[in-house]
Structures are given as C-alpha cells and as structure tokens.
Amino acid sequence: MENIIILGTGCAGLTAAIYASRANLNPLVLEGAQPGGQLTTTSEVENFPGWPEGIDGYSLMEKLRKQAEKFGTRTEYVRIASVDFSGETKVLTAEDGKTFEAKAVIIATGASPRLIGIPGEKEMFGGKGVTTCATCDGAFYRDMEVIVVGGGDSACEEAMFLTHFCSKIHLLHRRDELRASPIMANRVVSHEKIEVHWDTVPTEVLADEEGNMRAASIRNVKSGEITELESKGFFIAIGHIPNTAPFAKELATDENGYFVPETGSQVKTKVPGVFVAGDCADHVFRQAITAAGMGCQSAIEAERWLAELA
Ligand code: NAP
C-alpha cells in the first residue's frame, strides 16, 4: 500500500508532490489525460512569482516535475475511473481495471476546457478547425483569419498569442465588456490584428465539402442579427469544468462540480485522509500560484494526518 497517492500533475499536484517527497512520504503521482496540467497549453506565464521575464507554461511545469522527482516522487500515467473511500484504506481503480491502495490521497485533477454546445463544434474538433488550445494549434493557421470565443483572460491570451501567426483574429464576446484583467483587455482591444465582436455569440460551426471548417454562423444578442464569418480556425476559451466526476459520489461538490472542502479548511474533505487542491476545488482564484499554494497545504495536511495514523 502507498503512503500517499496524488492525482494530477498540474501546479497543485506537483507542488503537493514536492512537499510530500521532501517529507520522505515517497508519493506516487498518477498523471491523467493532460500531463503538466493547463499551464502546458499556456504560452507566457507573467504572474508566477520568481520569473520577472515571464516563463512559458510548459517549461514551468517541466521544472516543477524535475523538482518533485529530485526528492523521489514516482509518476505513473493512468486515469482513475472510480474510488472507494469507505474504508481506512483508500482504493482507486483505473480505467484499465488496475487498482491502487493508499493511506492518504490528494486529488488535484484540475479542470478541462468548457465547450459551447453548438452544431459543428464536436464534428470539427481536433484537426478540422475547432480547438481549445492556441498554443498547440495556432501555428496551423498562419496568415489566416481565425475566431476566438470568450471574454476572459484565457480568450484574450489566446487572441494575443494568435497575433504571432494569423492575419486577423475575430474575438467573439457575448457581452459589451471583457471579463479579462484590465491590462490584458487593453492589449486586446488596442491590437491592430484583433477585432472584438461585442454582444456576439457563435450559433454554428460550418463545414466545407471535406468536413473542415469554412465559417461560423454568429448572432448579435442585442439585435438578433445572424451573419456568417469566414474562418478556418475556431478557438474556444470560455472557461473550464472541474475534473471531479469519478469522485462525486464520495466527496461533496457544488452545483458546478467543484469540490467543497470542510468548513475552516481549503483542502480537507469529509473523508479523513483525502484532500483536494487546485482548480478542481477552487472556482474563485484559479491561478497557478493559488493552485500551488493549495498543493502545499494539502501535502502538509496529509503529512500531519499520516503522522497521527502511525
Ligand atoms: P473565465 O474568466 O470564467 O471567462 C470565461 C469567459 O467565457 C467569460 O468572458 C464568459 O462570458 C465567456 N463564456 C462563458 N460561457 C460562455 C458561453 N457558453 N458562450 C460564450 N461565452 C461564454 O475563464 P478563463 O478566461 O478561462 O479564466 C479562468 C481563470 O484563469 C481566471 O481567474 C483568469 O483570471 C485566470 N487566467 C489568468 C491568466 C493570466 O493571468 N495569464 C490567463 C488565463 C486565465 P461572461 O464574461 O459574459 O461571463
């Protein structure tokens, strides 16, 4: 049986791993569908303390991983499908049926990009025009016009990143004011390659004869007018859904699926020895640094709990 299993290799999971391994707990980290978490799909991270020049998200996560491994963290690539927290031993079952047992568990499974739910979105997802990752796919749209959907920091960051490749970026936002931080919003509205379509939502992604995107149907929510916007790329950046489904029967979640920690703690759950950290449990801050902070807290709490158990 493992002392401690950590689920997730984003900022929360890897910070928990650094602390747990430095405490000689020999943690096993199970990494899921997106090794390194959301930051690996971000371009420049400008607000992580200690990096005055900024650092790209992938490099930051590689450094965190190396730091965790330096102290003995072990990593296995597996997706957990279900858990049984009813006994003292926590049992986790992977999608392939393999089971893991641990005294303590830290869940830091993050959140996944939200989709819009319009016709054509799923059909053209991944390689045919629709994507949730400008860092991954932006270079495919060199000298083309593309669409970005959303008004938060993610959408603005995606739009700014795409200015390096694309001839024009159409940012569709459903309101008349961006949600993004003022510095980011200013960069976007003043950029010559970005046109913001206020009060506008996409209603359908339209395909050409080969099934690739050719345009989007868009609607002005105030006037109701529907038009077609020609574009080969459609970047969705409208927030995230917490990855908590496999644990929802065992742990409390709110109406949006985020873990709800015990009163007075950010990371303790109602199950002794099970802790949560990062974007799966935080719908307020959702920052790399706050996720890292929760990862730290969860590892210290787990260490204390294991010490009491011994
Ligand atoms: P977010 O702040 O929740 O913004 C989501 C955006 O998508 C909002 O503008 C929202 O519109 C829009 N939206 C939501 N559902 C929609 C739908 N069905 N159709 C059309 N538009 C829809 O999410 P985020 O931008 O991913 O940011 C999440 C957190 O990460 C934030 O705290 C953000 O500050 C942080 N972040 C920071 C950085 C950075 O500092 N470098 C980069 C990225 C993200 P409304 O505005 O009308 O609600």
Account of the 3D structure:
By secondary structure, this protein is α/β, with parallel strands linked by helices. 23% of the residues lie in helices and 28% in strands. It has two domains: 2-113 and 240-309, FAD/NAD(P)-binding domain; 130-236, 3-Layer(bba) Sandwich (FAD/NAD(P)-binding domain). The chain has helices at 11-22, 57-70, 134-137, 153-162, 182-189, 288-309; strands at 2-7, 28-31, 44-45, 55-56, 74-77, 80-84, 90-94, 99-107, 111-113, 130-131, 145-149, 168-172, 194-197, 200-207, 213-220, 226-230, 233-236, 240-242, 274-276. Helix 1 packs parallel to helix 6 and helix 4 packs parallel to helix 5. The longest helix is centred in the last third of the chain and has 22 residues, at 288-309. The two termini are 14 Å apart. The mean pLDDT is 95. NADP nicotinamide-adenine-dinucleotide phosphate (NAP) binds at residues 47, 116, 149-155, 157, 174-175, 179, 201, 237-240, 286. NADP nicotinamide-adenine-dinucleotide phosphate binds at residues 47, 116, 149-155, 157, 174-175, 179, 201, 237-240, 286.
Search tags:
6 helices; 23% helix; 310 residues; 19 strands; 7-stranded mixed β-sheet; 2 domains; single chain; 28% strand; alpha/beta; elongated; FAD/NAD(P)-binding domain; binds NADP nicotinamide-adenine-dinucleotide phosphate; 5-stranded parallel β-sheet
